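Q: I'm writing up a methods section and want to include an example of the input and output format. Could you take the sequence below and give the corresponding predicted structure tokens, formatted cleanly so I can copy it straight into the document?
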Amino acid sequence: MKRKGLPLNGWLALDKPLNLTSTQALGKVRWLLNAAKAGHGGTLDPLATGVLPLAFGEATKTVGYMMDATKRYRFTLKFGTQTTTDDLEGEVMATSDVRPTEAVLRAVLPRFTGTISQLPPRFSALKVDGQRAYDLAREGEEFELQPRAVRIDEINLISYTNQELAVMEVTCGKGTYIRSLARDIAQALDSVGHVAELRRLQVGRFSEKDSISLDELSAKVQNTPADQLLLPIETALGDIPALAITEQEAQRLRLGQTVSLLLMSNRDRLLSLPDAVRLNGSPVVALLNGKAVAIAEVAAGELRVVRGFSS
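A: Here is the clean output for your methods example:
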């Protein structure tokens, strides 16, 4: 059955406001653009604001790569109270009079960089026996979440007010919970704490300067065609190695056929690819005149389609 709406293809970086779920924000934008198909590239909690990448049409095929992208956040850790949700939404479950000095706080942050073990919040979208953890938590059910390895590239203390409100910026990998990070930093300082404010500053190639608010978008759609408000599909694939292909090769890939890279004329192209692509099956973006034709992999000297895009 044909979807209702315009067949839009591309990405839009929304500056998500407070008190909207990512799904609700996506629904509002999809309605404003009258888009037939859409998805979001990374959930933000209702109490979080900032960059929420939204994919339309063919771009939804690249959402998985956006989920894996490096992210950057600014958050405020409030010392003294721990909540059931590790943010402002939950009920207070513990308090502490301990307030670390700025020097002590700075000294502990390196312990939270690199690959660390992190216990996700009980109020999270992770599934436990087929049910969302936040649903079980709201129902008062007993359950256990397992610690997970996450990557923290960098943590910087931006300001520390009255030894109570610590504003930090963190760059991290997939699956990192900032609420858990804030909780664990406070506990490492023999205190308790929760996230009082959270803003996502960047997801992969999408940053604050690329994002647009719902009000700005609502005004722009009055005079600008919806497709002109979107960024190209390739925007989400900027961290994946690219391979330029010919029109003939593009036609083969569109048909799901392989392209040999073992011919002498292709030897330089094959050798120019990173070892991770040539030897380990990492993805490559096949580009025709700068436009993504497919996400592919190299196997046995052949280029094989993993995800194709309609022209």
